Amino acid sequence: MRRDREYSRRSKQSGAAGASGVSSWLFFWSAALLAFSILQLRSQSSANFSSRFALPDHAQGEKIGDYSHRLDGLSIEIFSAPKPFVGEDKGNNERAIKSWLRLRPQPKVTLLGYETGYDQAARDFWDQY
Protein backbone atom coordinates (compact mmCIF):
# COMPACT_ATOMS: atom_id res chain seq x y z
CA MET A 1 0.00 0.00 0.00
CA ARG A 2 2.84 2.34 0.81
CA ARG A 3 4.37 1.74 -2.62
CA ASP A 4 1.06 2.66 -4.27
CA ARG A 5 1.03 6.01 -2.48
CA GLU A 6 4.64 6.72 -3.45
CA TYR A 7 3.91 5.82 -7.08
CA SER A 8 0.83 8.05 -7.22
CA ARG A 9 2.76 10.90 -5.57
CA ARG A 10 5.60 10.55 -8.11
CA SER A 11 3.21 10.45 -11.06
CA LYS A 12 1.43 13.57 -9.80
CA GLN A 13 4.75 15.37 -9.42
CA SER A 14 5.97 14.34 -12.88
CA GLY A 15 2.61 15.36 -14.38
CA ALA A 16 2.87 18.79 -12.79
CA ALA A 17 6.43 19.16 -14.05
CA GLY A 18 5.31 18.24 -17.56
CA ALA A 19 2.51 20.80 -17.47
CA SER A 20 4.95 23.40 -16.21
CA GLY A 21 7.28 22.65 -19.10
CA VAL A 22 4.45 23.07 -21.60
CA SER A 23 3.37 26.36 -20.08
CA SER A 24 6.97 27.63 -20.20
CA TRP A 25 7.17 26.85 -23.89
CA LEU A 26 3.82 28.50 -24.54
CA PHE A 27 4.98 31.60 -22.70
CA PHE A 28 8.27 31.62 -24.62
CA TRP A 29 6.59 31.37 -28.04
CA SER A 30 3.94 33.92 -27.10
CA ALA A 31 6.66 36.36 -26.09
CA ALA A 32 8.62 35.62 -29.28
CA LEU A 33 5.55 36.24 -31.47
CA LEU A 34 4.81 39.47 -29.61
CA ALA A 35 8.38 40.69 -30.12
CA PHE A 36 8.22 39.75 -33.81
CA SER A 37 4.92 41.62 -34.21
CA ILE A 38 6.32 44.73 -32.58
CA LEU A 39 9.37 44.62 -34.86
CA GLN A 40 7.12 44.25 -37.90
CA LEU A 41 5.01 47.21 -36.86
CA ARG A 42 8.12 49.35 -36.47
CA SER A 43 9.62 48.34 -39.82
CA GLN A 44 9.57 50.48 -42.92
CA SER A 45 6.82 48.41 -44.51
CA SER A 46 4.45 49.36 -41.72
CA ALA A 47 4.78 53.06 -42.51
CA ASN A 48 2.27 52.65 -45.31
CA PHE A 49 0.02 50.61 -43.02
CA SER A 50 -0.02 53.22 -40.27
CA SER A 51 -0.78 56.05 -42.68
CA ARG A 52 -3.71 54.15 -44.20
CA PHE A 53 -5.15 53.17 -40.82
CA ALA A 54 -4.45 56.29 -38.79
CA LEU A 55 -7.03 57.77 -36.46
CA PRO A 56 -9.20 60.56 -37.91
CA ASP A 57 -7.69 64.05 -37.89
CA HIS A 58 -10.31 66.30 -36.31
CA ALA A 59 -8.41 69.44 -37.37
CA GLN A 60 -9.04 68.52 -41.02
CA GLY A 61 -12.73 67.90 -40.45
CA GLU A 62 -12.74 64.10 -40.39
CA LYS A 63 -15.64 62.69 -38.43
CA ILE A 64 -15.31 60.15 -35.67
CA GLY A 65 -16.23 56.69 -36.92
CA ASP A 66 -15.88 57.57 -40.62
CA TYR A 67 -13.41 54.97 -41.82
CA SER A 68 -14.90 54.35 -45.26
CA HIS A 69 -11.70 55.53 -46.97
CA ARG A 70 -9.90 52.53 -45.45
CA LEU A 71 -11.98 50.02 -47.42
CA ASP A 72 -10.16 50.74 -50.69
CA GLY A 73 -7.20 48.54 -49.77
CA LEU A 74 -9.21 45.65 -48.36
CA SER A 75 -10.52 42.58 -50.12
CA ILE A 76 -12.71 39.73 -48.93
CA GLU A 77 -13.04 36.21 -50.31
CA ILE A 78 -15.77 33.85 -49.13
CA PHE A 79 -15.36 30.12 -49.61
CA SER A 80 -18.54 28.08 -49.33
CA ALA A 81 -19.65 24.52 -49.94
CA PRO A 82 -23.42 24.91 -50.05
CA LYS A 83 -25.95 22.13 -50.27
CA PRO A 84 -27.18 21.24 -53.77
CA PHE A 85 -29.37 23.92 -55.37
CA VAL A 86 -32.54 21.84 -55.17
CA GLY A 87 -35.85 22.60 -53.48
CA GLU A 88 -35.80 24.75 -50.36
CA ASP A 89 -32.00 24.69 -50.24
CA LYS A 90 -31.88 26.48 -53.61
CA GLY A 91 -33.68 29.51 -52.19
CA ASN A 92 -31.54 29.52 -49.04
CA ASN A 93 -28.31 29.29 -51.05
CA GLU A 94 -29.37 32.07 -53.41
CA ARG A 95 -30.30 34.35 -50.51
CA ALA A 96 -26.92 33.71 -48.91
CA ILE A 97 -25.00 34.47 -52.11
CA LYS A 98 -27.04 37.64 -52.72
CA SER A 99 -26.32 38.85 -49.18
CA TRP A 100 -22.59 38.20 -49.65
CA LEU A 101 -22.55 40.11 -52.93
CA ARG A 102 -24.16 43.12 -51.24
CA LEU A 103 -21.17 43.50 -48.90
CA ARG A 104 -18.74 46.37 -49.49
CA PRO A 105 -16.09 45.94 -50.65
CA GLN A 106 -17.69 43.30 -52.81
CA PRO A 107 -16.17 39.92 -51.97
CA LYS A 108 -15.07 37.21 -54.33
CA VAL A 109 -17.32 34.20 -53.68
CA THR A 110 -15.95 30.72 -54.39
CA LEU A 111 -18.29 27.73 -54.37
CA LEU A 112 -16.42 24.58 -53.42
CA GLY A 113 -17.44 21.21 -54.79
CA TYR A 114 -19.60 20.19 -57.70
CA GLU A 115 -23.20 19.65 -56.66
CA THR A 116 -26.47 19.94 -58.54
CA GLY A 117 -27.15 23.52 -59.58
CA TYR A 118 -23.68 25.01 -58.99
CA ASP A 119 -23.23 25.70 -62.72
CA GLN A 120 -26.57 27.48 -63.05
CA ALA A 121 -25.97 29.52 -59.90
CA ALA A 122 -22.56 30.59 -61.18
CA ARG A 123 -24.10 31.69 -64.49
CA ASP A 124 -26.87 33.58 -62.68
CA PHE A 125 -24.61 35.47 -60.28
CA TRP A 126 -21.37 35.94 -62.20
CA ASP A 127 -20.95 37.00 -65.80
CA GLN A 128 -17.35 35.81 -66.13
CA TYR A 129 -18.25 32.17 -65.38
How would you sum up this structure in a few lines?
With 129 residues, the chain is mainly alpha-helical. It contains 4 helices and 2 strands; from the N terminus they run H-H-E-H-E-H. It has helices at residues 2-42, 45-52, 88-101, 118-125, and strands at residues 77-80, 108-111.
Please summarize the sheet with the most strands.
Answer: 2 strands, parallel
Count of alpha and pi helical runs = 4
In terms of structural class, how would the helical and strand content be classed? Answer: mainly alpha
Count of spatially separate domains: 2
The share of residues in extended strands comes to 5-15%
Q: How are the strands ordered across the major sheet?
A: 1-2
Low-confidence stretches: none
Radius of gyration: 27 Å
Q: What is the element string, with H for helices and E for strands?
A: HHEHEH
Return the average pLDDT rounded to an integer.
75
What share of residues is helical? Answer: 55-70%
Number of strands: 2
First and last CA, distance: 75 Å
Shape: flat
Task: Give the helix/strand layout.
Layout: H1 2-42, H2 45-52, E1 77-80, H3 88-101, E2 108-111, H4 118-125
Parallel strand pairs: 1-2
Structural overview:
By secondary structure, this protein is mainly α. The chain folds into two domains: 2-52; 68-125, no CATH class. The protein has helices at 2-42, 45-52, 88-101, 118-125, and strands spanning 77-80, 108-111. The protein has a two-stranded parallel ribbon. Strand 1 (77-80), helix 3 (88-101) and strand 2 (108-111) form a beta-alpha-beta unit. The longest helix has 41 residues, at 2-42. It is flat and about 50 Å long. The termini are far apart.
